[in-house]
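Figure 2 data, in text form.
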Amino acid sequence: MTHAQDFRSRAISALTNDVGVYALCDLDGQPIYVGQSVDGIRNRVRRHLTSARSDVIANRQIDVWEIAYVWAWPLADAGDVQLLEGAIFHYYDAQQPLMNGKGLSQPATAFEWPDRQQVQVIEEADRRLRLDPAQRLPRQIQQYNLLVDYILTVKDAPHLKRSLEAHFRRLVKYHQTFL
């Protein structure tokens, strides 16, 4: 196991394994994907970050290289998971479109969020290096191309095109930073 993998594994181990909602956040600390877990947040996040049984990784919606932080909102009552996930999704998707693809239902009533746990899953020095536009822009162009190819050759679906649109908006930002 490399030093970076060891760091990530230790960081993930610090996450709660309660039922709840989580956000995978990019190098800037912005959520790019919101999900829920009824079998433990730590277990679900570990599957995402190791590409094991994670559709959003397998179908190229998100790039694990871009994930620097995980936020977790553990819940005492598993019955509230969908309400919280919808509330968090809509809050962050309105700020910057998420890579989820599939939209989530917005709760009909206000939902109070529990306290958030935040874990950094890459070392700070590595995160700063990855923020370099000369590294980040080409990497994200490649990821965008992988998603286009997936849509053209494997599955042409509205949720994947929504993810593609979110990628494009982020690419514009990365492009401007590069210039």
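Caption note: The chain has a mean pLDDT of 91.
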